[in-house]
Amino acid sequence: MPGPLSNSIREAFCQHYALNRNAAEAGRHVGITMNIYRFMSIPEVAERIKELEDEAAHNSGIDKDRVMQIWWQIANVDANEFSQNRIGSCRYCHGQDYEFQWKTPREFREQKRAAIEKFKLSQDLTHDDDVRIPSDAGGYGYRMTREPNPDCPECDGLGIQYQVFPDTTKLKSHAAFAYQGTEVTRQGVKVNFAGKTDALASIAKAIGMFNDQKPLDVSDSAQKFLETLMGSKAPLSK
Fold first, then answer.
1. What value does the mean pLDDT of the chain take?
2. CB 234 within 8 A of CB 44
3. Ramachandran class of 28: left when φ > 0, alpha when ψ lies in -120 to 50, beta otherwise
4. CA 14 to chain centre
5. 26-33: average pLDDT
6. The pTM is what?
């Protein structure tokens, strides 16, 4: 490889640009006054930048094509992969005569026992004797996951909301790239994952959509990959 440039300003620019990929900032850092893109088109400058980028990629084991694909997968990940807000039936939707429906006889017995103990009532009393004792007139078999009954007079067919969090050890590869851990807070469970906006910004920067950025030098395979995903030719340099 050619190695460092003999011109110290050009070398400093290349080093700075290779570090942060911001052409305008690199130009200001070394005091370049000419048009930055004309400066970057100088053959030895362009070659030195590519040399530094290739060297950095080799040393870190990073493959540009793979990074681009990961960014794209993160940018397109569905938030439902991490948490879902679902609508299910309320307790009255499928109860007999729209009465409160219990999950199981055991659930009913436990609630009845709790009411008797709370109000210090006789074990032999029923709901007909004292309305403070639960009734099982609505029957059993309640499942929150059933569809709401559109004719339910209690919820007007709107059902109730409930949240579902998947087993994060079984996330699909594209979602696993974005997953950044789960926290238990005072407000509940918080699932952290990389944002679409940041991933799209990284892609846009890499393909030169920002005025002060040099398009990322990628291989033909990455070019074809992005063309397939985006439906048009992406402005990637070769």
1. 83
2. no
3. alpha
4. 35
5. 87
6. 0.56
